[in-house]
Amino acid sequence: MLSQKARYALRAMIELAREDGQVTAGELAVRADAPRKFLEAILLTLAREGLVVSRRGKFGGYLLGRPAAEINFAEVIRLVDGPLALAPCVSRTAFRRCEDCRDLATCALREALLRARDATAQVLEGYSLADAVAGEGAELLGG
Predict the structure, then answer these.
(1) Which PANTHER family match (predicted)?
(2) Do 66 and 3 belong to one domain?
(3) Half-sphere exposure at residue 77, Cβ-oriented, CA atoms within 13 angstroms
(4) In total, how many domains does the chain have?
(5) CA 72 – CA 77 distance, rounded (Å)
(6) Which residues touch 62 (CB under 8 Å, ≥6 apart)?
(7) Do 59 and 91 lie in a common domain?
(8) How far lies 35's CA from each of 9, 79, 95, 113, in Å?
(9) Domain of 55: which CATH number?
(10) 1 and 36, same domain (yes or no)
(11) Are residues 63 and 22 in the same domain?
């Protein structure tokens, strides 16, 4: 399930994609309908990874670190929430054996979870911030 933190991150990133210039944290919080302090912590994480650039000072704010077409939903979600996989045994980025697993090769759940991971990744990796701006993406974010 998509966390509220990831929803705020995606909403803020979409708002940045809509802008030609920078946007203040306060303005982003209003537009993303997110608590400002919480959103600032999220933006700090996004800035560390280069997805956003922050400018300090009186005329400071945030802007995208790359073109909107080059930032996909999967990248933002993985950064904020971690792997897309429903179980660690099918994760591409954080693989580990499930605690109660007797045998990966004979696990009755694994094939379905692999397919779910692949389908989810395909959709989210293929959907950029530019796509969300063009389609307004509200239905994806519950907005």
Answers:
(1) HTH-TYPE TRANSCRIPTIONAL REGULATOR ISCR (PTHR33221:SF5), WINGED HELIX-TURN-HELIX TRANSCRIPTIONAL REGULATOR, RRF2 FAMILY (PTHR33221)
(2) yes
(3) 21
(4) 2
(5) 9
(6) 12, 16, 22, 23, 24, 25, 28, 43, 47, 52, 53, 54, 55
(7) no
(8) 12, 19, 33, 34
(9) 1.10.10.10
(10) yes
(11) yes
Which domain does 35 fall in, by range? 1-70+131-143
Tell me: do 103 and 77 sit in the same domain: yes
- For 52-57, which contacts have Cβ atoms below 8 Å and span 24 or more sequence positions? 52/13, 52/16, 55/22
As given in the structure block, the two tokens for residue 140 are: 């994806």
- Tell me: do 1 and 58 sit in the same domain: yes
Short-list 51, 28, 24, CA closest to 39: 28
Amino acid 65 reads: G
CB 75 within 8 A of CB 50: no
What string of pLDDT tens digits covers the 143 residues of the chain? 899 999 999 999 999 999 878 999 999 999 999 999 999 999 999 999 999 999 887 778 999 999 999 999 999 999 999 999 888 888 888 888 777 877 777 788 888 999 999 999 999 999 999 999 998 544 545 54
